[in-house]
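Input record (one chain):
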Amino acid sequence: MKDRLQRALLVGIAIAGVLGLLHALGVGLPLLWALVVGFGVVAIAMPRLGVRWLDDLTLAFRAWLWRREQGHHHSFAGMALDIEEHAGQVWISAYSLQRALRQHEPATTTAARLADHATAHARHNAQGQLMLNVQAVVTYLAHMPRRTEPRVQRLRRYLEREVLYPASRRAGVGASRPAAFEDSRPARR
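The corresponding structure, as predicted from the sequence alone:
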């Protein structure tokens, strides 16, 4: 069962439990009517205040609902990629990389493969996920045995163009291309 569905079911069960308890105590319906009348009075007497409260409540609920997904806007082939910036570098979760490459191996094995391509190639984030340096991933993708597969080439191009290059622009490097563009291309014969 998906995490979002589990949360929705838990919230629904909790709300049903609270409403059932209030109904059993005999205050459920009167309390509901009091809330509806109270919000109605505020909305009629002070429409701006009522609208502001409703807007703030809506925004707070939306922020709470999307708190885990906020800032995770990268996706490749319909799969969300967990990418974050830390200490001036861009990192991708090993699980996201493995899903994008359709690999079925331990995350530590993937991290060990990157050790030849960068010194700071892996770290753990605050949630305990293994994060891999995107520049090392791009270099690895350019030199891996399956580098000629279209999916691997598209992923490498996506990471270069949509992740590394915009990150270097945000960091103030300017219009220059990141080193991964020059280092990651295999030599032509």
